[in-house]
Amino acid sequence: MIKLIRGFRDILPGQVELWQDIESKARVLLENFGFREIRLPIMESTELFARGIGADTDIVEKEMYTFPDSKGRGQTLRPEATASVVRSYIEHGYAGSDPVQKFYTIGPMFRHERPQKGRYRQFYQINAEMFGVASPLADVQIMYLLHLFFTGLDVPDVVTHVNSLGCPECRPKFREALISFVSDKMDRLCSDCQRRAEANPLRVIDCKVPGCKEAVQGAPSIQDHLCPDCKEHFQAVIEGLDDLNVPYEIDPRLVRGLDYYTRTTFEVQTTLLGAQNAVAGGGRYDGLVKVLGGKETPAIGFAVGFDRLAALLGAEEKDFTVPPALFIAALGEDARKIAFGWLCDFNARGLRAEMDYEGKSLKSQMKQANRFNAGRVLILGENELQNGMAVLRNMNTKEQEEVALDGLTDRVAALINQG
Ligand code: AMP
Prior knowledge:
Layout: H1 16-32, E1 36-37, E2 43-45, H2 46-53, H3 58-63, E3 65-68, E4 74-77, H4 82-91, H5 94-97, E5 101-110, E6 122-131, H6 136-152, E7 158-164, H7 171-183, H8 191-196, H9 201-206, H10 210-215, H11 228-243, E8 249-250, E9 262-270, E10 278-284, H12 288-291, E11 299-305, H13 306-312, E12 326-330, H14 333-348, E13 353-355, H15 362-372, E14 376-380, H16 382-387, E15 389-394, E16 400-404, H17 408-418
Parallel strand pairs: 1-5, 7-8, 12-13, 12-14
Antiparallel strand pairs: 2-4, 3-4, 5-6, 6-11, 7-9, 9-10, 10-11, 14-15, 15-16
The structure holds adenosine monophosphate.
The site of adenosine monophosphate has 18 residues, from strand 6, strand 10, strand 11 and helix 13.
């Protein structure tokens, strides 16, 4: 038997209804906030992610699905959406025509990570990105939107962690302070951190390896190194969240795994998913549009982890099966032909109807109708055909009535619609 690739999964009927529900609520909310959908390819040139996400991040170093095209150029299944949205923003000239743009996109991402609960190699995200607004109002609005989204879905036990990562002005000084802090703790760090301590020391304070977590206790805090502008920005964000009653925790250790973040970063965390505790994350990335070849443009966005959100809302436990309104039981070849015509007619009218396609006995068709939990059964046997009447049985009240074959679908549809 050919099986799923490790780290990939099927989202089956019964689970998918929850995904649809989440997705439609996300769309309504995002569109109310002025975000418009953008659909992007799942494959981009490797350079986009290498430049956008940062060459010495985990994602670019070891998690990308990269394939050469026929000319040997690298192309990569997208590990995240922001770099693609930025590419599209630049490529379609938005910066020149109307730099303030809000986009959202929903779809699969690919990362070659070690699969475990809540961590897949193909996973789904809901992404929102807002371009052209430097004001902290954008940060507040984005985090408020996310808060409304989670509370609207009644997601249990989520807390928004927020931090500032500073800017090109103040971050280098913080980096230096960190490098000097970790320099005499190298032997306590994991091999990844030892390697990246110089190039990317922020990743060391973000490392989940217990030894590293312990070694960085007492590390300098970015909050103590923010320049006056970044401090003011962060203060305004916090005040804005307070004004809108968005609950949050200031978390000076929150750095996140992608290089492009500046100033505000945030993560929605839960204690209910074990080690994979982030359900959404995002932040400001004021430098990225320029890094990817566009004009200097402030921007901010977030990504919700769809798989984790669905797990939190119990996709596995709920049964979303909707029973058909009608099951048609037909006996004999002639009756089955007529029944099939009715079936198509009911379906075209938007009524969920089912029938037996195989010519089973009436008894087994009635069993099938019960298994489907159909609201009504329409019976058409040889006698009924001769009399020009079919029998309609209400499976709840057990009442039966005869319905003339002539004009039957109109009559039955009307009865079903009456309830
Ligand atoms: P990131 O782009 O890493 O900030 O991820 C944003 C969100 O996507 C995270 O908060 C997770 O909820 C989700 N996510 C990231 N990686 C995975 C993965 N491998 N499997 C499932 N969800 C993921």
